[in-house]
Fold this sequence. Notes:
With 81 residues, this protein is mostly beta strands. It has one helix at 9-12, and strands at 16-24, 29-37, 47-48, 72-73.
Amino acid sequence: MFTERSFDYETTGERNISCTLVATDNIHNSTANIVVHVQDINDNTPQFENSKYEMKINETVAIDTVLLTVSMYTTYIFNQN
């Protein structure tokens, strides 16, 4: 089984894909139902809270000193279904 196209949860709206698998040896046939659940993932680019960070440090700052802590976020909201 392989895909013939990509599955973009936001644009296609597809969440479940169903198909039937058929196997045969030219005498006997067997079928199985396959359900593929397309999961929504976070595909948005993370953003920093600020576009620029500046700071001044003393040249004698100790090794392993935390110089700056920044935060980032994403605008993604998981589907609550």
